[in-house]
Amino acid sequence: MVAQVMEGVGYDPVMASTKRGQRAAAADAAAAEAPPSPVVEAPAVADAHAATTRERILEVALDLFIRKGYAATSMREIAAPLGISKAALYYHFPSKGHIMLELHLRMHRAFAELRDIPGPGADDATWLRFVDQLIGLALRNRRIIELHFRNRDMFEDAHEGPLLEEHTKAHEDQPFEAELLALFLDRSGTPEGRVRRLASVGVVAAVLFGSAALSDIPDADLEPMIRRIARAVLRAR
Questions:
Q1: In this structure, are 77 and 129 located in the same domain?
Q2: Prediction pTM value
């Protein structure tokens, strides 16, 4: 009845159905061409992504600082291998100095892992355990320590100027440095014994300082070599 009335006033049901189909098709096409809605990452995901990017920046910077030197490396050179812009790099680190500071503090945090630092007058067995611990720690952080040997001047920036406050704050909970200093200034024992103890630490330092010449030796082979030589210096079995 309704259809008959509509037909009476010029309504064509076939044409109307065709137009409805055309409008639906046009709507589908528009939806397909529309840009996808931006994906909003959950805070935890965004934080994890930022942390990963930050780690990659530090790894690239570490490699460049060792190979080229801190002063000769630009922020653009750090950003390029990562496929990010220099502006994106500044989002994670306000300056090249802040990248350097983070790498510097990694060495401090590594040495904070030292336990059972011998006190004044410690016997040879205690000192030997300390040297063994030092060797393992040094090899695990070989590249960070190499960075410090190769760029000693760059760390002056961490001890003065605008970075000094951040550097000092990071040291507030690291009393181990005073313990190490007291250890190396300990005058107890015979003169030869004191020389041997310091020389055993020097073995570790020398290997790290010349690590570029030893880069072809895997850590698994290098570690027992250093231990044997350090024990020989200490005359320990």
A1: no
A2: 0.65
